[in-house]
Specification:
This protein is α+β, with helices and mostly antiparallel strands and 199 residues long. It has helices at residues 6-17, 23-30, 34-46, 59-62, 79-87, 114-121, 179-198, and strands at 66-74, 92-97, 103-109, 127-134, 151-152, 159-160, 165-169, 172-176. The strands form three sheets. Strands 2-3-1-4 form a four-stranded antiparallel sheet, with helices on one face. InterPro entries: ArsR-like_HTH (IPR011991), AsnC-type_HTH_dom (IPR000485), HTH-Siroheme_Decarb (IPR050684), HTH_ArsR_DNA-bd_dom (IPR001845), TRASH_dom (IPR011017), TRASH_HVO_1752 (IPR056526), Tscrpt_reg_AsnC-like (IPR019888), WH-like_DNA-bd_sf (IPR036388).
């Protein structure tokens, strides 16, 4: 795992502004040749820093429904289930899980009954309380902040430093903070794969 230098961070900033920016434009900004920029972007993709290039849609122009911000106080044993349910919902645009287990999401709800639509999204018996606010406007501006930029360990979610490890497992590149996390992840992956093959 190599350190990301200032050039890498500037390339990421430029791509965050416009993922379709030509390499020739980026090269003039970072003082590298277009092929060198291409090589760096390829490495950033291989290392999992860049997962995909996407389109930033203005949902208000293409989808109906009422934009809402929903805060859920979830019973601790159900936080993962609630997160997974909301992660797969088409109406949910942004999802946040706080360290204390509170789940907040931004969505466009189309039904006249917010409670009915929330019940379709998740099992409300897993939620202690919820609060729904109408959203007047929303801006989503992903940025690249060099001082706070770090990869997360696929096993324990700690920050991966230059001493970390990476491995391609099942065709996907994962990053780990240490060899112990890598071994635990590989062991669990192998066990689950063997169980799946047995069934």
């Amino acid at each position: 795992m190599r350190h990301l230098d200032g050039t890498d961070l500037r390339i990421l900033e430029l791509l965050a502004e416009d993922a379709r920016r030509p390499f020739s434009d980026i090269s003039s900004e970072v003082d590298l040749s277009a092929p060198a920029v291409s090589d760096r972007i390829d490495r950033l993709r291989e290392e999992g820093v860049i997962r995909r290039f996407t389109v930033d849609l203005d949902q208000s122009t293409i989808s109906g429904g009422t934009p809402v911000l929903v805060r859920l106080s979830v019973r601790p044993e159900f936080v993962d289930d609630v997160r997974d349910s909301l992660r797969g919902a088409d109406s949910v645009q942004h999802l946040f899980v706080a360290a204390d287990g509170e789940v907040t999401f931004h969505a466009r709800l189309g039904s006249d009954s917010v409670r009915a639509e929330l019940h379709e999204l998740l099992d409300l018996s897993t939620v202690r309380t919820y609060d729904v606010s109408l959203v007047e406007s929303a801006d989503w501006t992903p940025t690249v902040n060099g001082s706070g930029f770090a990869l997360e360990c696929a096993e324990c979610e700690n920050t991966v430093t230059s001493e970390g490890e990476r491995a391609r497992i099942g065709g996907t590149l994962y990053h780990f903070c240490c060899s112990s996390c890598l071994r635990r992840f590989e062991d669990r992956y192998d066990r689950l794969e063997a169980e799946a093959e047995a069934n």
